[in-house]
Design a protein that fits this description.
The complex is a heterodimer of chains A (380) and B (400).
Chain A lengths: L11 H5 L5 E7 L6 H16 L15 E8 L4 H11 L3 H6 L3 E5 L19 H4 L34 H6 L18 E2 L2 E3 L6 H19 L7 H5 L5 E8 L2 H7 L7 H12 L4 E7 L2 H5 L11 H16 L2 E6 L11 E7 L9 H6 L3 E7 L5 E4 L4
Parallel strand pairs in A: 1-7, 1-8, 2-3, 2-6, 3-5, 6-7
Antiparallel strand pairs in A: 4-5, 8-9, 9-10, 10-11
Chain B lengths: L21 H17 L7 E3 L6 E3 L4 H6 L6 E2 L3 E6 L5 H15 L3 E5 L3 H5 L2 E4 L1 H18 L14 H11 L2 H4 L11 E7 L9 E3 L8 H14 L6 E6 L15 H16 L4 E9 L8 H9 L2 E7 L5 H7 L10 E7 L3 H4 L11 E5 L4 E5 L9 H18 L2
Parallel strand pairs in B: 4-10, 4-11, 5-8, 5-9, 9-10
Antiparallel strand pairs in B: 1-2, 2-3, 6-7, 11-12, 12-13, 13-14
The chains are: A alpha/beta (380), B alpha/beta (400).
């Protein structure tokens, strides 16, 4: 098969023109992972920015604003994203230097804290084994100048522009922010590592602070206050990509007071910092349907909460991109089915252009060995 | 074998000079020499994937290596979850091969939740040469009929992995007369024998002892410490037999907020820079069905997911008829690949082995995975004969 363009034409309208404050939900299943689609979102945002080809971007992108991306990944490490993006022609390490991209590592230390024994300079030893045989040289994460302190974290409260968040952010929790443990704010150069500590919404709040700090850093508003944002002085729009935040929900559960409601509020809280949000979720059959009343056995809390979170997110989304296996079984030239459907928030945006170019459709996709993706209709 | 020169000059492991296992010695030493000469990658048992060059290591089962999405092995840093239905222990056999391969290759093997007895019952090493003889006898008949350059094409596992992996896997210096320079990547083991190898004492057992910490936190810490304290280039194998099995694990460990963070941390550990490790986990599906959200999340966190569905005993008739030819062993069960390392992470689907129905056969010497095919119905012999003798001429008559 010939090499494919990085953005398949059928896909382009859905990945490159995200209306402001929109949420895109990307649902995946075990056999049809959505990383390739996530990468297309990265590509659409970052490549357009680097070549200043803004023809595709609508909305505020018309003003020549640069698109920036913050990728928060809970299941995959930096190495994976770097290698896969390279296959698309995106040099994430370089883009990180240029503050167009930031990676937030939700894998390495989310539950376990820093690796290796404490006291022995834990953060510098593992990456210093530079000639690591895994995937070539480690990007110069360690020798990058560590960025200046992120400055005051944009507070959640005084942002009347986005009304949703006011509901989501319980005011009493905000003062606890400065007490964020040092472990949760550890960083290696540009890579921020999340660490879940504590219980309930407070733990999520700490994660949110960390991510918000990275967003502020990337968007060049490290010192800006919330008022600047309200006045619309930001010179760039940030796309936030959350890769499988549902892991947080699955791995904590009700005993730690994190449920679907808390997760939804957490995502809403994050949305207010950025221009648009893309979120991948697992939508496997047991995770969605076991919770329904028709199921023949009692659903576990995991299933109930996951279904509530996934379905709730779909209702809040502008667009839902579903990936699933081919119904007729695996095939050699088809990787899966992509279904694009309207989310619950469809048409609520004032930007009608974007909505106009989006239409519901179902197509097949095929990921080649070289990383190229073709998206085509049935029978084409 | 005894007249073969023992080439100990470039051996990597100093402790391998013991004369414990002659066959292991005789094939390990040249392999080490070849590895040192051929590539900077001098770690035994690790080779670059034919697909994209990432380092892979063998699972100890050649046919399992071959279905892992063209990499010819389990890529370093990946976890493989083996699920098994029913009360059989085929997955356990896979784990033993995996651990034994690690022992033979001088990898560091960590066994979670099993007593030392488990390590003592690892299958014994038979020289790879034996396996080759075995295989060649079988293949000889076909070799007459097929031109040599096509002979691997139709074979199981053919393709990028098959064509390059097979010679390295099993044909050893003694096989063809032409000395094979490739290091032994995968060995053959005999389930009825016991493995004796100098480095078997290096197995690291992590018992499940109750403490005031959550169980999985303890396990993770000990794994982490063991990996952190070993020399940087060591290759690790983490073996977790029968995860969540209530006879081994306390009941609270099967809570999602207990096991899922552990698997996530394990994944983080394997992905950490500088760590070269793989993990293989088995889980009893009869106790934790795939239709539950917990198991689905465990699968989502793992890199590869394989399900074993052994045929029930009553299906012996089917099993015997399942053999494509009379001299093949009947399959003992079906194997489903739900997710393959790397391939599915990227989006999946382009591997030619995806979508195959696999059957597996466990014999004394090997765990073999091959495509499953139903034979023609037994009672339909006349019909088939009729097809050949009766229908064909008719077809010719129809030509005009």
């Amino acid at each position: 098969m010939p090499t494919q363009p990085p953005l398949p034409p059928l896909l382009a309208p859905y990945v490159s023109s995200l209306p402001p404050s929109s949420l895109i939900v990307l649902s995946t299943v075990l056999g049809a992972q959505g990383n390739w689609l996530t990468l297309r979102y990265l590509y659409a945002a970052l490549n357009a920015a680097s070549t200043s080809d803004t023809a595709l971007s609508l909305g505020e992108g018309h003003n020549g604003k640069k698109q920036k991306v913050v990728l928060v990944s809970f299941l995959r490490g930096w190495e994976f994203w770097r290698a896969e993006a390279k296959r698309l022609g995106l040099d994430l390490a370089r883009l990180t230097d240029k503050r167009q991209f930031a990676f937030v590592d939700g894998l390495s230390e989310l539950f376990s804290g820093p690796r290796t024994t404490p006291t022995t300079t834990p953060q510098t030893t593992p990456p210093s084994l530079v000639p690591s045989p895994r995937g070539g040289p480690v990007p110069q994460r360690t020798i990058l100048p560590s960025r200046s302190t992120p400055g005051p974290i944009p507070a959640r409260g005084p942002q009347p522009a986005r009304g949703l968040a006011a509901v989501a952010a319980p005011a009493p929790l905000t003062p606890s922010a400065p007490s964020a443990s040092p472990a949760s704010s550890r960083e290696i150069g540009p890579v921020k590592r999340l660490h879940l500590s504590g219980k309930g919404p407070a733990a999520l709040d700490r994660l949110e602070k960390d991510i918000a700090a990275v967003v502020a850093h990337v968007s060049g508003r490290a010192t800006a206050t919330a008022t600047a944002e309200a006045e619309g002085e930001d010179d760039s729009e940030v796309l936030l990509v959350l890769d499988q935040p549902d892991l947080l929900l699955a791995a904590t559960g009700p005993s730690q007071e994190i449920g679907a409601t808390e997760m939804t509020e957490w995502v809403m809280g994050l949305q207010q910092y950025v221009h648009a949000t893309v979120m991948t979720l697992a939508a496997d059959l047991p995770l969605i349907h076991n919770a329904s009343a028709a199921a023949h056995q009692m659903p576990t809390p995991l299933e109930t909460e996951h279904a509530a979170f996934a379905i709730g997110s779909a209702h809040r989304a502008h667009l839902v991109m579903q990936l699933r296996d081919l119904d007729t079984g695996a095939a050699r030239d088809v990787s899966g089915v992509l279904r694009v459907s309207k989310g619950g928030a469809w048409g609520q945006s004032d930007n009608t252009d974007a909505n106009g170019s989006w239409e519901e459709k179902e197509a097949l996709y095929f990921v080649q060995r070289d990383g190229g993706v073709s998206v085509f209709g049935r029978g084409e | 074998m005894s007249f073969r020169k023992r080439n100990i000059g470039l051996s990597t492991g100093g402790d391998r000079t013991g004369s414990v296992n002659a066959s292991a010695q005789s094939q390990q030493a040249p392999s080490a020499a070849a590895a040192a000469a051929a590539a900077p990658e001098s770690t035994p048992g690790v080779r670059p994937s034919p697909d994209d060059g990432r380092p892979t290591t063998s699972t100890g089962t050649p046919s399992l290596d071959n279905i892992l999405a063209g990499h010819g092995g389990l890529p370093i840093g990946k976890t493989l979850l083996v699920e098994e239905n029913g009360t059989t222990d085929f997955a356990g056999a896979l784990l033993r091969y995996y651990a034994a391969e690690g022992v033979v290759q001088d990898h560091r093997v960590h066994v979670v939740g099993m007593p030392e007895q488990w390590g003592r019952s690892l299958p014994g090493l038979i020289g790879p040469a034996d396996a080759v003889d075995d295989k060649q006898d079988k293949r000889k008949g076909e070799r007459m009929k097929i031109a040599w350059r096509y002979e691997r094409l139709g074979e199981f596992g053919a393709g990028i992995a098959g064509s390059r992996a097979t010679p390295g896997d099993q044909s050893q210096p003694t096989a063809d007369g032409s000395p094979d320079k490739r290091p032994a990547f995968c060995h053959a083991f005999d389930l009825t024998k016991r493995l004796t190898h100098p480095s078997i004492a290096n197995l690291n057992y992590i018992p499940l002892t109750p403490s005031n910490e959550p169980l999985f936190t303890t396990i993770h810490k000990r794994l982490d410490a063991a990996i952190a304290s070993s020399p940087p280039n060591t290759v690790h194998r983490i073996v977790i037999p029968s995860l969540l099995n209530p006879t081994i694990y306390p009941p609270e460990s099967s809570q999602p907020d207990s096991v899922l963070p552990f698997l996530h941390s394990l994944r983080a550990l394997l992905n950490a820079p500088g760590v070269r490790a793989t993990a293989m986990i088995t889980i009893p599906l009869s106790l934790f069905p795939r239709a539950t959200g917990l198991v689905r999340w465990m699968e989502l966190i793992s890199d590869g997911v394989i399900e074993l569905c052994p045929f029930p005993h009553s299906a012996d008739a089917l099993a015997t008829s399942g053999a494509a030819t009379s001299h093949e062993e009947p399959p003992q069960g079906m194997l489903k690949t739900h997710r393959l390392p790397v391939l599915h992470e990227r989006g999946g689907g382009s591997d030619q082995n995806v979508g195959q129905d696999w059957a597996f056969t466990l014999s004394r010497r090997r765990f073999e995975i091959k495509p499953f095919s139903l034979p023609p119905a037994e009672g339909d012999k006349e019909g088939q004969d009729g097809t050949v003798s009766g229908n064909m001429p008719k077809k010719a008559d129809l030509e005009f």
